[in-house]
Design brief:
Elements (H helix, E strand, L loop, with lengths): L1 E9 L7 H7 L25 E3 L1 H7 L12 H13 L2 E12 L5 H21 L10 H22 L1 H31 L2
Parallel strand pairs: 1-3
Antiparallel strand pairs: 1-2
Helix pairs in contact: 4-6, 5-6
Length: 191
């Protein structure tokens, strides 16, 4: 019961902006850099480029259709497959897939808010996996600290580290906003 994970990168014919570079290298896109010597595991089950036997899915479950957005639904499926079928994941870097959609900060923030909604669903279904993001006040304080400390040090720490902090704080804040909006909506619907 094994899946094969391929590598996903930006299409070669699109201009990769600094934001897009960050997304792929340390940002929220994928965690290929976290695949160590022991290999990939269920939390690398990125369905933008993964292969799994059809029969395994038919026997142990398909995507949970409660997830309305393309975020966290693949990891929820992989977690269930790991628990019920002992799913293993092999990484084949030579199996390359391309993202052919340039992304800017506005579209990334919108997508990340939707991902926050999906994170809330995952937390409800599998609280052992993920909980609520840290409070906004934490991120705002951290953002102020990072900007206060990093801007004068850009020459020392480099633009990439400074931009990683800048992008990361905004993205994680957007995810929290989406999470809290989904939580509020669920509470309003509760009897």
């Amino acid at each position: 019961n094994c899946a094969v994970l391929g590598f996903v990168t930006w299409a070669p014919d699109i201009e990769v902006t600094p934001l897009m570079h960050w997304m792929e290298h340390g940002g929220p896109q994928f965690g290929y850099g976290n695949i160590g010597l022991s290999g990939a595991c269920w939390d690398h089950f990125y369905t933008s480029n993964v292969s799994v036997k059809r029969q395994l899915l038919l026997e142990h479950g398909l995507f949970d259709e409660d997830f309305p957005y393309a975020a966290w639904e693949d990891l929820e499926l992989a977690y269930r497959l790991k628990k019920t079928a002992g799913l293993g994941v092999l990484f084949n870097r030579a199996a390359v897939g391309y993202h052919d959609h340039p992304t800017d900060m506005r579209s990334l923030m919108r997508r990340t808010r939707l991902a926050g909604h999906s994170r809330y669903l995952l937390a409800c279904k599998h609280p052992e996996l993920v909980g609520p993001p840290l409070p906004i006040s934490f991120w705002r304080r951290l953002e102020r600290s990072v900007l206060t400390l990093c801007l004068p040090l850009i020459g020392v720490i480099g633009w990439r580290r400074a931009m990683h902090s800048f992008y990361g704080l905004h993205i994680w804040t957007a995810e929290r906003e989406g999470y809290l909006a989904a939580e509020k909506k669920a509470l309003e619907r509760a009897p």
